[in-house]
Give the backbone structure.
Amino acid sequence: MGTARESLKTARRIVIKVGTSTLAHADTGKLNLYRIEHLIREIADLHNAGKEIIFVSSGAIAAGMNKLGIKVKPQTIPENQALAAIGQGVLMHIYEKFFAEYGQTIGQILLTKENAVDEEARANSRNSLSTILSMGAIPVINENDAVGVDEIRIGDNDNLSAIVAAMINAEVLIILSDIDGLYTGNPNVDKSARLIDEVAEIDSEIERIAGGAGTKLGIGGMFTKIQAAKLATSNGVTMLIVNGSTNGNLRRALSGESIGTIFPRRERHD
């Protein structure tokens, strides 16, 4: 059981996905600058320690809503595309500022489903990511919501992060959530629900207990994280779900501590 967590200590190429629920205050929907700065400082320190970090970020639409003072998320595609376009600039400005303060260079990449399924587009995306990493920079990735429609959208950044992790042969994918990991039930209503330390196999029971939506700000709930885990682990990537609201959890997870829920990698299917 400890083997999967022990292997995290030597992992070099790591994808970190952060959701809107971690980036924004739940009550107001406004960006949580305190949490963002601490997260970026932690990522910068991991990079200084010799890790290759790929940062997959949600939050563009929430940032756009915040910028324009919109309280309720619109339902139409054009409105959400516009908010994403505005919010991407806001997020990247904040990321650029904080990462620069800790001596890091970042490069933004926007992806769609075409980048994942089309062989040539996938190769181009992989080459771009690999080159950014080789230059010592940190790729910041999001789905291209500003132009995406249902036919070309991946639909959530949990699955996007798993696609990216598989694409670049990452060793670990860490998904930062607003809860401690996968529970046997909903901990908000079931007091007997317990945190699952390790999921060796994603079966129908795991999929059942992962059903349900996430917070009101985010798109992907626990079910999309399980979908991401299936994709990641089948491509040789170990995945963790960890609480993103606690400072130091990234370092703790990568030190092999028993926090969150771990999904050990399976043999890669090339």
Notes: Residues 77-101 form the longest helix (25 residues). The mean pLDDT is 88.
